Amino acid sequence: MAALTRLLLDIVALADTFVIVSAGGVLLTHAERPTDMTKAPKLAALAVMIHADQVLLVRRKNEPDAGLWGFPGGHVDFGETALAAAARELREETSVVGRPLHYLTNVDVIIKDECGCVQFHFLLAAVLCEYLSGEPMADDDVSEAAWIPINGVLIRQIACSKHVDDVIRMATMSQK
């Protein structure tokens, strides 16, 4: 058994050059490696704001999800909390000022090309925000910003990014 363990350790040590060992003990060539382990998901925060039976949404200019409606949001800066990032992105993208209340959920967005290779991977921290002031105006990387009736989103009257309706349901339940 010790000899087998040593052999496996030697194989693992050579993994970058020749083969890797999968969790099941199967040898895979370098070309069969499932993913590039040097990459990591990008962390982003979403500002989820509900006010007077409406939800604040933006229409994205850029991929992924260009042209679809979703929550204001974007990357979390190094040293910044996701709560602070949600408030900052809310203001930058919509000119609306809000106070982050708490985390609602996390959403993984993994988008693959036609060959199955990952093109985008985001880990989105959805943050419930309280409306303080301002009227929605599109800015930064969005083409529109508007208060949309919650029922209109839930019955899919507008084209939204995946998970928007689920996060809205969580937010409305959280406010009760």
Automatic annotation (TrEMBL):
It is an enzyme of class 3 (hydrolase). The keyword Transmembrane applies. Pfam families: NUDIX. InterPro entries: Nudix_hydrolase (IPR020476), NUDIX_hydrolase-like_dom_sf (IPR015797), NUDIX_hydrolase_dom (IPR000086). Its EC number is 3.6.1.-. One of its GO terms (molecular function) is hydrolase activity. The keyword Transcription does not apply. Residues 40-172 form the Nudix hydrolase domain. Keywords: Hydrolase, Membrane, Transmembrane, Transmembrane helix. It comes from the Bacteria. CDD domains: NUDIX_ADPRase. The chain crosses the membrane at residues 7-28. PANTHER family: ADP-RIBOSE PYROPHOSPHATASE, DIHYDRONEOPTERIN TRIPHOSPHATE DIPHOSPHATASE. This is Putative NUDIX family hydrolase. It comes from Octadecabacter antarcticus 307.
